[in-house]
Amino acid sequence: MNIEFLKCKHLLIRDRRATIQFQTNLAIVNGPIFIDEDLTARINMADAQFSFQQRGRCYYPAWMSPEALQKKPGDRNLEACDMWSFAVLLWELATREVPFADLTPMEVGMKVALEGLRITIPPGISSHLSKLIRICMNEDPGKRPTFDMVLPILDKMKR
Amino acid sequence: MATLTRPKSPRPPVSAKKDDKDESFWDKIGTLGRKKRIKEVQEVEQEGKHAIDSPGNPTNPDLAPEEYALEENEERSMLEPRAYDDPKLQELIFVLIEWINDELADQRIIVKDLEEDLYDGQILQKLLEKLNQEKLDVPEVTQSEEGQKQKLAIVLEAVNKALGLPRWSNTKWSVESIHSKNLVPILHLLVSLVRHFRAPVRLPENVSVGVVVVQKKEGSLSHRTIKEEITSTYDDLGMRCERDAFDTLFDHHPDKLQVVKKSLITFVNKHLAKVNLEVTDLDTQFHDGVFLSLLMGLVEGFFVPLHDFYLTPQTFEQKVHNVAFAFQLMQDVGLAKPKARPEDCSNFFPQK
């Protein structure tokens, strides 16, 4: 997956389904995605659903930041929201688990938005990665890093 | 969807409302409307000028008291003298007066005569505040005719808003017609309120009155009589939809109603418990649409972003928005369009 792609869009992958949030506030949700051998992800637009087709329904709140669950897109920093989602993706990669798999979307949404429910980082995960996850999901959207700042960190972690 | 996207225009100043408040349905006829509109534009302009020139004095001295001389092509309508003898009309007036007195009993207001008691807007204001459970920002007592009309304008604006009438619609009542103690617009207004707020009264059906319309044409007065329909045929308490299983339940097994309610509450709580919410009374806790929206998400497996509805609705409008939103969710996931209107659900009166 290309991080630069994330930079302008909000991409959320779950069970080979993708949610993409463009900054124009138009979003494709639930488009089936296919990964080629060269690791290029392709989205099948034929079956894709757009966000205006499911107004008021959010099927994957576990990947969304608390402010994204509460505020209108115009009232929040979209890139900071994306950074939160990116942190949840990193958490998935690290733990190989689905966040809040035992809760229904409504439970997750209400608890994350109103009761401070957060994913917990289990022990045994590389300290660099867990630190990155933590800074990416800072409670204050303004204090989350941008993708420009995350890229060098990832590069360093590769070595 | 229409209710959801209804534009929330800022409250227009009273003067701007002049355009539609002066419009009677006569304006639809021929060139009368155009002529009148020019006059209205001039009026509004003058009023605007006045407002700028004298900021310390909000009252506008235009709109001379109604003159009895008619201008060319001007029309005036009045009730036929013998219309008052119609037993159906008498019954309608009686029912309406009883209803108003019932509603306003705790305020020690007693209405005896619709025309004489309602024209100044005082009682209409109290009535609307009671029905809407919302205070209107108007002076308590007004003596001057100008003050009364201004107050009436605000009250009527609030009425139209409560009834969900768009600002541009041709309402059957106006400040002028009600203030001139014309019974027909007062009746139209009250009937609309009764219907909208599901007042627990039964209106006599198909009441119509003879109205004499006088028009000046080429210098001479001509008159004609038309029938004005005040009420038409309604089903019980204004429900205009086909009967369903619940109607049968209400009619034939009122005793079973409690059982049905109980099982519905059990069902609802089974789901709402997951988000630590509990319902004890269907009548009072579902009218604002909050639980309905949350319930939709719980049973259909999605989260409802909190910016799409009001989690703690305060006003009737917010409640209607919530219910309409929940209805939209229901339709989006493939349920049939609910038969009730969102306004009906949000119209919650404490039951006796």
TrEMBL record, chain A:
Q: Which domain of life is it from?
A: Eukaryota
Annotated ranges, domain Protein kinase: 1-154
> What GO cellular component entries does it have?
focal adhesion; stress fiber
Which PROSITE patterns did the record assign? PROTEIN_KINASE_DOM (PS50011)
A single GO BP annotation from the record? substrate adhesion-dependent cell spreading
Task: List, in alphabetical order, the Gene Ontology terms for molecular function in this entry.
Answer: ATP binding; protein serine/threonine kinase activity
What InterPro entries does this protein map onto? Kinase-like_dom_sf, Prot_kinase_dom, Ser-Thr/Tyr_kinase_cat_dom, Ser/Thr_Kinases-Pseudokinases
What PANTHER family does this protein map onto? INTEGRIN-LINKED PROTEIN KINASE (PTHR44329:SF57), SERINE/THREONINE-PROTEIN KINASE TNNI3K-RELATED (PTHR44329)
What is the name listed in the Swiss-Prot or TrEMBL entry for this protein?
Answer: Integrin-linked protein kinase-like
Gene assigned in the entry: LOC113471119
Automatic annotation (TrEMBL), chain B:
Q: Where in the cell is it found?
A: Cytoplasm, Cytoskeleton; Cytoplasm, Myofibril, Sarcomere
What are the recorded GO MF terms, alphabetically?
A: actin binding
Q: InterPro entries from the xrefs?
A: CH_dom (IPR001715), CH_dom_sf (IPR036872), Parvin (IPR028433)
- Boundaries of every Calponin-homology (CH) domain copy: 90-198, 258-352
Q: Name one GO biological process term.
A: actin cytoskeleton organization
Q: Does the keyword Repeat apply?
A: yes
**Entry keyword set:** Actin-binding, Cell adhesion, Cytoplasm, Cytoskeleton, Repeat
Task: Specify the superkingdom.
Answer: Eukaryota
Please verify whether the record's keywords include Flavoprotein.
Answer: no
The region called Disordered is annotated at 1-25, 40-64
* Signal sequence range: none
Q: Where is the composition biased (Basic and acidic residues)?
A: 16-25, 40-52
| Pfam families per record | CH
What are the record's GO terms for cellular component?
actin cytoskeleton; focal adhesion; sarcomere
Protein family: Belongs to the parvin family.
Q: What is this protein called?
A: Beta-parvin isoform X1
